[in-house]
């Protein structure tokens, strides 16, 4: 029951976070032309750099580092509080100062005022990052997800009201800033404490050594993720960026929610297994199986209904976005497998492993942007999908080698997940073909109900064991004489 509750909390919190973005995207696309929405998408590509600085690297160190006693714990939390807050302020300042230059480079005058407005949120993003890392560190993931859900639901109500009142990029900026404020306020209230000790330079230097490879990896991933937006804006216009962002948002939102829930749980479970000296291979196998089933199922749903969703939700102005959806769905399903390197490397302290994996993957994605962006979004999407499949396969092999998972045991676990995924895909395809004539809502609703049923059966079979009690399966395996 606890595992089901944790998965439900994760999907609620992360679903609210991603769902608020989807809701704002839907309304914005209905009220704005692609080039106007593309301007905001371009601004978001630069704003997210500040977000990743406060939600990775030092964040991972705070979430996983050992604290010998309460004094060490307080010193660690205080040091990382001031470090993350300084990063947030510095990121916001750089963003505001760079705004006029970026507006000229991309021939988008709105960036000159939009980026400084969005920069105001960066200190609050840093506070929410610190509070989230503290909650993760102490195993309060359910509380963390609940806070995310509450803040995002209130923020989306504010954003939608603003968007209806005055359609434009300013309303989207109001939503982003209000979400940052509400998330910081909610999570800081839950943590109920700030820095209780003076910061330590020794702890900061240790954290920085740990974090540097993770920052390099995340920056490389960010460049790959938003490289297409920037390339399309430079080669064509912000309208092409808007179409690409709509397609990518639809393709990624489901797999991204599932993958983030898996990574958060995997980071906690693998960290505990590695500290205890047993069970790491088993926990990785659980994470891989959950990723295959959950992210794969979400991607299959988008691939099946993507064209109908674009037509129903965005109208003919965004019809070209549907051409890239099948390839982007495949990309979204494969990348979370490569992303498993992050929790494995962070839990084992080998963050350089993640850095080189992310750099290699990102360089390949950026090469795709250079070679294929001029051919249009659809061709670029298929090229990136091929890279993602290769990266996913290599990531699985790398993680298995790191935790010393036996190929036979991992294959059995993944085969079970693949069987459940195949069962879902078969049923979803039948439901779409039979019920789509009755309307998109009926067909999609029946498919989501089928997804809930298959997920429940997969959970009972052990495919979602990652979300069960941390030591339960490791203890069972040890009692049965299986290697950890």
TrEMBL record:
Segments crossing the lipid bilayer: 42-62, 74-99, 111-135, 147-166, 284-305, 317-341, 353-374, 380-400, 407-427, 447-467
InterPro entries per UniProt: Poly_Biosynth_Transport (IPR050833)
Membrane-topology descriptor: Multi-pass membrane protein
Keywords: Cell membrane, Membrane, Transmembrane, Transmembrane helix
Subcellular location: Cell membrane
Pfam family, one: Polysacc_synt_3
Assigned protein family: Belongs to the polysaccharide synthase family.
PANTHER family per the UniProt record, alphabetical: LIPOPOLYSACCHARIDE BIOSYNTHESIS PROTEIN WZXC, PST FAMILY PREDICTED COLANIC ACID TRANSPORTER
Annotated protein name in UniProt: Oligosaccharide flippase family protein
Source lineage: Bacteria, Pseudomonadati, Pseudomonadota, Alphaproteobacteria, Rhodobacterales
